[in-house]
Amino acid sequence: MITKVRGTHDLLDTTLFDFVINSAQHHFKRAHFTQIITPILEPLELFKRSLGVHTDVITKEMFIIQQSSESDLICLRPEATASTMRAFLEQGNLSLPWKVFSYGSMFRHERPQKGRFREFHQFNLEIIGTESIAQDAFLLGLLDQLFQNVFKCDDYALLINFLGCGQDRAEYKPKLYAFLTMHEAAICSACKERKEKNIMRIFDCKNPTCQELYRTAPEITQHLCARCTKEWKQLRDQLEILSVTYTHSPTLVRGLDYYDKTVFEFVTSSLGAQNAFCSGGRYNQLATLMGSKTDYPSIGAAIGIERVLLMLEQRVDQLNLPQKEALSVVMPLGTEQQNLALLIGDLLFDAGICVEVMLEEDSIKSMMRKANKLGAQFALIIGPTEQETGTITVKTMMTGTEEKIAQRDLVHYLKK
Ligand SMILES: [Zn+2]
Ligand SMILES: [Zn+2]
């Protein structure tokens, strides 16, 4: 037997998935975001430039598709921000700020674990072409409302940090370097490597000794320029105005190269170790990293759908899930009634009624069992008598009561 690829999953009941996607779409459309769709296939070069060649995503986790020539390697997208920026730059001439969302499959060749797949779904939001930190507060407010009011989550926290501008980090990094040199003996070997290659990544270390030590490390927010200091305060003030509860996490730096200023994660204890279900930040230099002559300061977020599903499965009863449509099941008692059953099914469908016609030539007992399993509201029985007299027997499944009515009155009967 052929089984699914490791790290992928089948979703055979999409009720909750649809709820998450539909309500997020509705939520962000109301905040005047536009939906876009970008390809799953992208040039590998796009992510090398945007994520940085030294990141885990690029060095270990890319699904690369070998083309005939080396120069045009393509890959399955590992995230959506770079694609969105590419689409924005390629289209040109869009009015700013460009507020868009998209959702779909992303691909990373990681070790599969609970809530983490190699093919996974994200819902992505980007506000491209804005320097205003108030947009950051606005986006965080919208996300918080979605999780709290629509998804009815209460056991999560919003962690934020402010990484300053490039200049601030250039001045901060030597101070962090000096701190690490002072504690060289205490840090793990991976952190020793990060210290030389990409120093701010030390904060992503999962080693408890390192984590404990980094609590006393110099904080980037204490090394901000005048403008960034003002923006960092503005962000916190505006989150308060919007009643968004947050925690400042000085060690939150996010995994990717292109972030500056605002970075954030929504985390929950209900997911175990993989506890972030939404994350993002500001990426002011991404456009220029990708070859644009103009800077387009931007802010974005990604919601991990599989992780949200894991959270919501625990509280399905609190959600405002759409009601299932009332189902009518047409039951021909014999082969001779099949044509009539098809016609009646067609008529009901045309009238906007949710209908299933039983065409497997089963016994009435077996058809009733199936209709019960399907949660049908009405069983519409057609035997030789009904066929001859132009009637139909309608059984209300809930009460078991039966009523014989004229076929021409059926639509009217079911709709009342
Ligand atoms: Zn600055
Ligand atoms: Zn470490």
SSE arrangement:
Elements: H1 15-30, E1 34-35, E2 41-43, H2 44-51, H3 56-60, E3 63-65, E4 74-76, H4 81-91, E5 98-107, E6 119-128, H5 133-150, E7 156-162, H6 166-182, H7 189-197, H8 208-214, H9 226-241, E8 247-248, E9 260-268, E10 276-282, H10 286-289, E11 298-304, H11 305-313, E12 327-332, H12 338-350, E13 354-357, H13 364-373, E14 378-382, H14 384-389, E15 391-396, E16 402-406, H15 410-415
Parallel strand pairs: 1-5, 7-8, 12-13, 12-14
Antiparallel strand pairs: 2-4, 3-4, 5-6, 6-11, 7-9, 9-10, 10-11, 14-15, 15-16
Helix pairs in contact: 1-11, 5-9
The chain binds zinc ion (2 copies).
One zinc ion (ZN) is lined by residues 187-188, 190-191, 205, 207, 210.
Bound molecules: zinc ion
The name of the CATH superfamily of the largest domain reads Bira Bifunctional Protein, Domain 2
Number of strands: 16
Can you tell me the number of structural domains?
2
How would you sum up this structure, described in words?
This protein has 416 residues and is of the alpha+beta class. The chain has two domains: 15-165 and 225-318, 2-Layer Sandwich (BirA Bifunctional Protein, domain 2), CATH 3.30.930.10; 327-415, Rossmann fold. The chain is built from 15 helices and 16 strands. The strands form three sheets. Strands 1-5-6-11-10-9-7-8 form an eight-stranded mixed beta sheet, sandwiched between helices. A five-stranded mixed beta sheet has the order 13-12-14-15-16, with helices on both faces. The longest helix has 18 residues, at 133-150. It is elongated. It starts with 14 loop residues before the first helix and ends with a helix. The mean pLDDT is 93. One zinc ion binds at residues 164-165, 167-168, 224-225, 227-228.
